[in-house]
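Quarterly update from the structural biology core.
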Amino acid sequence: MISKSYIICSCIHNLFRTFLIFSSECRSLTRFKQSNP
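Predicted structure, tokenized:
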């Protein structure tokens, strides 16, 4: 049986990873806009 703490940790990890990917995407988008006025 999977413990609740493990589920919570995995959820937080997934959220954190999604946030990191999203922020990196935003950064690359802004850099792309700056290089192409």
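The chain has one helix and no strands.
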